């Protein structure tokens, strides 16, 4: 039996679902496996687009064509990663919210999202001018480089979480 929750994080963790995920012999590892597969898919597809934006690969293909072909896979995998990540979070919520690596991972996800929003709502409006060019404008390269950096940091901090749970009480 768990103690009476004193905050929202403990309420999530001590809920019947949180307890089930944490104590099940198969549920946490299955969710973690699906989370990693989804994250690898997100990263792989984003890297293809980012490397094209940097002008390093696929220069024969239009940015719009590359994006249209790949981004549905990215979004599907991102939704799966978000769902599985949330379910994993519930199992140890009070440990995650005090872990600096978890907080940095969330910050990098937010920055990756803001970078993507800025790119799509501002920079992408001029795509017709540079869509098929091998050399991309500086703003496109900056967006691609920042995306690569933010997503690599998401992976780094996410991996560090598993090695540091329980250290920050």
Automatic annotation (TrEMBL):
Superkingdom of source: Bacteria
Transmembrane segments: 26-49, 70-90, 102-121, 142-168
Keywords of the record: Membrane, Transmembrane, Transmembrane helix
Name of the protein in its database record: DUF2214 domain-containing protein
């Amino acid at each position: 039996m768990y103690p009476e929750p004193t905050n929202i994080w403990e309420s999530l963790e001590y809920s019947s679902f949180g307890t089930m995920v944490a104590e099940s012999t198969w549920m946490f590892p299955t969710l973690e496996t699906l989370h990693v597969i989804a994250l690898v898919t997100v990263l792989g597809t984003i890297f293809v687009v980012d490397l094209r934006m940097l002008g390093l690969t696929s220069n024969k293909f239009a940015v719009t064509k590359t994006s249209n072909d790949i981004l549905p896979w990215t979004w599907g995998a991102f939704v799966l990663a978000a769902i599985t990540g949330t379910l994993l979070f519930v199992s140890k919520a009070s440990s995650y919210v005090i872990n600096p690596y978890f907080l940095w991972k969330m910050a990098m996800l937010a920055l990756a999202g803001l970078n993507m929003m800025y790119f799509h709502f501002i920079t992408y409006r001029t795509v017709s001018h540079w869509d098929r060019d091998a050399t991309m404008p500086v703003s496109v390269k900056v967006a691609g480089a920042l995306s690569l950096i933010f997503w690599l940091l998401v992976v780094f901090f996410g991996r560090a979480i598993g090695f540091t749970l329980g250290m920050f009480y």
